[in-house]
Write a structure and sequence with these properties.
The structure holds two protein chains of two kinds. Chain A is mostly helical. Chain A is 66% helix and 0% strand. Chain A has nine helices and no strands. In chain A, helix 1 packs across helix 2 and helix 8 crosses helix 9. The two termini of chain A are 23 Å apart. In chain A, 34% of the residues are buried. Chain B is extended, with a radius of gyration of 32 Å. The relative contact order of chain B is 0.06. In chain B, a hairpin with a 4-residue loop joins strand 2 and strand 3. Chain B starts with a helix and ends in an 8-residue tail after the last helix. The longest helix of chain B has 22 residues. Chain B has a two-stranded antiparallel sheet. The chains are: A mainly alpha, B mainly alpha. At the A-B interface, helix 2, helix 3, helix 6, helix 7 and helix 9 of A face helix 1, helix 3 and helix 4 of B.
């Protein structure tokens, strides 16, 4: 579990020549190299968040592209009223949330429109969200990992995002709230619901001997 | 006491995430110290939160990250090419201001702009000609059609009998001559495409030598890394590798070198790659080096590259990582 509470973004703290502020100003003037350096400061963690939230390399790649392209297009509107990290992650979280929501819709539409669906039992199509269900899908070497992945499907997109940013990225709830445009209290409630659902799902799985 | 346990259970995850207020944290720790059931609840939650770490990947695969960066670089470049530049951009901005002015100056801005346009037109009519207005001279590369467009494929045909109309979607081939400075973005894009696709390896080698001095530029470097990994000609792959020598510590280049070390058949390439990597050891390479060692040891004695084996082992030892069979 990440223990970092905040990320220091003082100018020059990441070793970028002239400091981050100088990079941002240069990128706002369409300096490609400056924008690339800004990307390099954050893109590893952005990709990690996208991979952990979306659980698909293809989706994470798309989210990475979309988020940084949006950042490139709108960097001229950044006014240093918050940290660049917060501003960027606001974009990243919205992109990931949109993808998660699209995935849920696609799953429903596939069930509705797939001609094969009529020949299959609904249990074969719809994801069974009961913990411990369908044990045939669990891989021998990754039982717990599979269970956690399934348990994460129980979370709403926002709960999943809050959980990811808190548990794996170690961000403060206040910062997470800023990124998701919700209050700190709302972020706290999201986290509470997320951990409660995960605890319940994994606890039941253990009770069923999985 | 029951209330205390419930209070602790409600806050235990926030405590472990260090999100309790000072007052709540003190009360929480006091209850944990004094009540075994509260302490047990804390331990259970600790184990639960730690178990959630089993699925997280703290390390992003370097090659995957490199691909994402490369794709982004190209996308940003294309985005930028479509953006209006110079005087065109000025006119685009001015036009936007006239047609969509903000606030209470709408009438004044539009009237002023209209008068300005008339004045500019009058002045331009008095002095126009490319030689008098160099800022309006065409800065684009010269493009000349060599032959008329020729039909290569008919993709779609739609017939509307009622209207007696037919609609075609065609593919045509245009043969053109493009002449311009090598640093012109359009010409540069053609150079990079030719480096990847031109069939003659001698020409690809010349292009690479021409582009290599600019390897500090992201687009050029990405093209050289791609050539190092994918060009079908081993001589060109080796030339690309040597041209990236000064950037061996850049993540995209390093990912490319590790890929060469793992997948390249040519022993000379692998030796060069391992030499560059050993000059800049980094703990992030441990997993990849162990993977290379395992892969190399699995080969028959005739196929093993002893130099690569020794160098990998030495670098792993320098990084305090295991070289044993795993």
């Amino acid at each position: 579990m990440a223990t970092v509470d905040s990320i220091s973004l003082a100018g020059g703290s990441r070793g970028a020549p002239g400091g981050e502020a100088a990079l941002i100003r240069a990128a706002q003037e369409r300096d490609h190299d400056a924008f690339e350096q800004l990307v390099r400061l954050y893109d590893r963690s952005v990709l990690r968040v996208a991979l952990n939230v979306l659980r698909s390399e293809e989706d994470a790649r798309d989210a990475y592209q979309e988020a940084f392209l949006k950042a490139y297009r709108s960097i001229g509107t950044f006014r240093f009223q918050c940290s660049f990290h917060t501003w960027l992650y606001r974009i990243v979280t919205n992109v990931c949330l949109d993808q998660l929501r699209r995935k849920s819709v696609r799953k429903e539409q596939t069930v509705a429109s797939d001609p094969e669906a009529e020949r299959l039992s609904p249990l074969d199509i719809a994801s069974d969200e009961r913990p411990g269900a369908d044990p045939g899908r669990i891989m021998d070497n990754n039982v717990l990992s599979s269970r956690i992945t399934e348990a994460l499907d129980l979370l709403t997109p926002k709960e999943r995002m809050v959980f990811e940013l808190k548990h794996h990225e170690g961000l403060r709830l206040r910062a997470i709230g800023e990124m998701l445009s919700i209050s700190e209290e709302a972020a706290k409630n999201c986290l509470f619901r997320a951990t409660r659902k995960l605890r319940g799902a994994l606890g039941e799985a253990r009770a069923h001997g999985n | 006491m029951i209330n205390d346990i419930e209070w602790v259970k409600d806050r235990v995850s926030l405590y472990l995430y260090n999100e309790l207020s000072e007052e709540e944290r003190e009360r929480f720790e006091s209850l944990v110290d004094s009540d075994p059931s509260c302490a047990a609840a804390l331990e259970i939650e600790k184990r639960f939160l730690q178990s959630l770490n089993v699925r997280s990947d703290d390390e992003v695969d370097a090659a995957f990250l490199s691909e994402c960066r490369h794709d982004l670089s190209r996308t940003v470049y294309r985005e930028d090419q479509q953006r209006p530049r110079g005087l065109t951009a000025w006119f685009a901005g001015a036009w936007a201001m006239v047609t969509e002015p903000q606030g209470s100056w709408t009438w004044a801005v539009q009237s002023g702009a209209a008068l300005s346009l008339v004045a500019v037109g009058f002045w331009a009519g008095r002095v126009s000609g490319p030689e008098q207005m160099p800022i309006l001279a065409d800065a684009q590369p010269a493009v000349t059609d060599i032959a008329p467009a020729s039909l290569s494929n008919i993709e779609e045909i739609r017939v509307d009998p009622g209207q007696q109309r037919v609609e075609f979607v065609l593919e045509e081939v245009n043969r053109r001559r493009v002449t311009g400075p090598a640093r012109d973005p359009e010409v540069e894009q053609l150079l990079l495409t030719a480096l990847e696709h031109y069939p003659n390896p001698g020409v690809r080698l010349e292009l690479m030598d021409a582009l290599a001095p600019r390897s500090e530029e992201a687009m050029i470097r990405a093209a050289l890394v791609r050539a190092m990994r994918e060009d079908p000609n081993p001589g060109i792959r080796l030339r690309a590798l040597t041209s990236l020598r000064d950037h061996a510590t850049a993540p995209d280049v390093r990912a490319g070198l590790l890929s060469v070390l793992r997948d390249e058949q040519n022993p000379g390439m692998r030796v060069e790659a391992i030499n560059l990597l050993t000059a800049h050891p980094d703990r992030g390479m441990v997993g990849y080096l162990q993977d290379v060692l395992r892969h190399e040891r699995a080969k028959g004695p005739e196929e093993q590259n002893r130099f690569v084996l020794v160098k990998c082992s030495e670098m792993l030892q320098e990084l305090n990582a295991s070289v044993d069979h795993f």
